[in-house]
Design a protein that fits this description.
The chain is built from three helices and four strands; from the N terminus they run αββββαα. By secondary structure, the chain is α+β, with helices and mostly antiparallel strands. It has a single domain, classed as SecB-like (Bacterial Protein-export protein SecB), CATH 3.10.420.10. A hairpin with a 2-residue loop joins β2 (53-66) and β3.
Amino acid sequence: MAEEDNNPQETAATGESTEPQGPQFALQRLYLKDSSFESPKSPTIFQAQWTPKINFDIKTRNTKIGDDVYEVVLVLTAEAQIEEETAFVAEVHNAGIFTVKEFDDTNLEHILATVCPSILFPYSRETIDSLVVRGSFPPLNLSPINFEALYAQQKQAAEQQAAGGEAPAPENVQ
């Protein structure tokens, strides 16, 4: 039976690289960057029939914070209205630090706009739901989001705008 050589000192002595080769993607850290909850019409809003209109907004942004290291922030905002009165507004900024190494610019942009927010979304969704429940409202279970489709819509709108045509207004995610 052959033995494997797992001694890094011997590998270094032979000149072989112990670094993985090719593109690399890794999550370093997830964290809550900011959150807020407002219920401006409480306690009177609790006396109304609970038939809310829910408005939902999603934004992402990314910042390069080091060589091949990026912070991606997913911002979710949920607002419930009853008869034109705001029942609550919940906003969450969840962030992650990601290593994205040796990808071309197109793939880097795609990863930062789709893969990273997809990783952050379940945490953001849970935080929004927790804030809403702590505000004494029924749970708010947000549906999964297809970040690939959102990215494709944004790219198409940017292409249309660049071509001189009017881009359709992006749809709110419900």
